Amino acid sequence: MISPLTTTKPVQTSLLSVRDLSVEFRTRTGIVKALENISFHISKGETLGIVGESGSGKSVLALAILGILDRAGHITNGEVLWSQNTETHNLLKMPEKKLRQLRGKELSMIFQNPRVALNPIRKVGKQLVDVLRCHSNLSRNQLKKRALELLASVKIPDPQQRYDAYPYELSGGLCQRIMIALALACSPKLLIADEPTTGLDVTTQATVMNLLKDLATDQQMATVVITHDLALASEYCDRIIVMHAGHIVESAPTHPLFSQPRHPYTAKLIAATPEPHKEFNDLIPILGSLPDLRREDLAPCRFISRCDRASERCQQEALMYQQVDEAHWVGCWYPLEV
Ligand SMILES: Nc1ncnc2c1ncn2[C@@H]1O[C@H](COP(=O)(O)OP(=O)(O)OP(=O)(O)O)[C@@H](O)[C@H]1O
To answer: Which GO terms describe its cellular component (predicted)?
Structure first.
């Protein structure tokens, strides 16, 4: 795939630049080509949404960036450039020890399932103190004070009492907030939030997302929000990347992406998304399913079998990104007209 998204922004002005990243999983039933030539960047203070249906590669992308793919996963191509002050490092080439220091302090992640991500046999307050101790020189008293402040900052009621709770004693929503407090403990420069509000009620969802947005503004924290909730992405993100079957198919600032989607898949995703003014019958399901990523004969465009605009060219020629407007790119030979 030819991807000019790699050159949309100079590395120096981005905090993170992912370039032509490809990931495969070697499994007993074949090689899963989970990501192919993924390129994007994110700047300080920016909130970037990554959307796409289940299996499109959103979580694998986050794990690959942080260097925590599981053993079956292999990065077969690309670089992940991290720029701080005037220095740029490829995280994929960074020694594990240095990368571990960076994770948690500068780069942080909120995982999809907080109950799995938290240590079930350690009190949540202690888990916060552990993270703070790793990355700061605070005294014992200061560590506890900071942990309590963090619990309060994510709106945990009665932080003093919750400090001594084990994860199983807390609701899913509270565990999610503990995860967020852990991820934010060291004021990271980049937060990757994978489905940060899954399982939360609507009010708590808004609290969590507003909190993340405030931190992005106040501390210039860059945030990648991974979600299949388009409504949430449209409300909180500055820019959106749409993924389908391991490819980026469209990338644009939020407003143009939703008002003038140019990739047929983006348009279908939007048409399938519930909105307050839409009746249930107005929603149009996306027909077909993601292709089997183990197939050796995957077409250059992985949306081809679900697309009503596809032609021979989509089957034969390498997928080309087209710039359809400023900062608006689409990976399609036949983008939708405006
Ligand atoms: N450990 C693994 N072994 C084999 N294939 C894997 C592994 N992890 C992920 N994959 C494959 O990689 C592809 C992308 O998966 P990923 O979990 O990133 O999707 P996702 O968009 O995050 O989905 P969801 O929204 O459901 O979390 C899928 O085809 C998945 O089956």
So the answer is: plasma membrane
